[in-house]
Design a protein that fits this description.
Elements lengths: L5 H16 L12 H5 L3 H15 L14 H12 L4
C-alpha cells in the first residue's frame, strides 16, 4: 500500500490539531508552534498523539512527543512511524 499524499495528510492533521487546540484550522500553519503560539499544554499534546495513532493506526513512541511541536513535525513523525517515504 502506498503512502497517502503529504498534502492530504497535512490537511487532515491540521483539522485534527485545530480541533484539539480549539482554534480555527487556518490558524495552524505548517510551522506555527503549538505551545508558544496556540497555548498547548502536555495534555493537549498527548491528545494529539492519541488521535494521530488512532486515525493512522500507527504507534508513536512517547519520546517522540517532544519533537511534535508544529504541524510539519507531526507529519514527519507520523511518516517515520508509518514507514512512509516521500
Amino acid at each position: 500500500m502506498s503512502a497517502p499524499s503529504r498534502e492530504s495528510v497535512l490537511e487532515e492533521l491540521r483539522e485534527m490539531i485545530a480541533e484539539v487546540l480549539e482554534v480555527e484550522p487556518e490558524e495552524i500553519t505548517d510551522t506555527s508552534k503549538f505551545v508558544e503560539e496556540h497555548d498547548a499544554d502536555s495534555l493537549r499534546a498527548i491528545e494529539i498523539l492519541a488521535r494521530v495513532e488512532k486515525k493512522y493506526k500507527v504507534e508513536v513512541p512517547q519520546e517522540k512527543l517532544a519533537e511534535m511541536h508544529d504541524l510539519t513535525a507531526v507529519y514527519d513523525t507520523l511518516a517515520e512511524c508509518a514507514g512512509w517515504t516521500d
